[in-house]
Predict the structure of Flavin containing amine oxidoreductase.
Amino acid sequence: MAQAVRQDATIHFGQTVIKVVSRMEDWPIGCVNVTTASGDAFLFDELVFTAPLGWLKQHQASTFQPPLPARLVSAIDSIGYGCLEKVYISFPDAFWKRPDATTGRVVRGFCQWLAPGVYAQPSNPEHWPHEAVDLSTMPASTAHPTLLFYTFGAQSRHITDTLEALRANADKTDTTDTAQNNFLINYFRPYFSRLPHYDAVEPACQPVACLATSWLHDDLAGNGSYSNFQVGLEAGDEDVRTMREGLPDRGLWLAGEHTAPFVALGTATGAHWSGESVGRRIAESYGRQRE
């Protein structure tokens, strides 16, 4: 997917954009100026801006010159930005997929713990619900014995805050994230331990690796994960269309999951589709016809 970019484009890593000056109607082509925190400046004919919606909410007022139109600002402000986080826990073997000795039934796919009770204490006094996707049920070429837990809301904040605190206090010589992994395993043990065939002393039931996102602590992600429609939203469809349209007259185009087709909002696939769509529109504006 990115091969052409890697081969033919100049990529500047580690650069944070702090200002975008886009052309007005009486400006010549080639006048979209981008300035980075390091003081470097770049000039473009057209600019495709793919910053996450959360980043736009926080920084659009200080980044874009001239200011974005009021309708576009309203669209950015109106669409919600979520705090869904992911935790991956891998095992030597998908022990939960073993057939039941009596019925032959196999548990697979999606698991939910709707109202964790006594078994989830003391780590979950709020009785936050849990859900996990069984990644061992994916196609054979990509399947692996991993449970993907999704969290959101206050629980996401609790987990990411705890991980950040542990990371800040960790011994600098610890390159294995021991404290963070121990926290995740102990936090989620009440749930994966209730899956079929779990045995606390069996090696196949012992987690071997953990990975957790921390988008709430990622400033470049806008301290969140992806767009959503909150209760009370009045014109969400038009808000998305407004962001999707961008400002082509100023050489400024927006792309990302928040500008995706409605069927793919909030997904990496949608972000990819939005980039393809903007690319086609730019090509067409220069007289290139869609193939």
User: Anything to note?
Assistant: The longest strand covers residues 85-90. Residues 268-285 form the longest helix (18 residues).
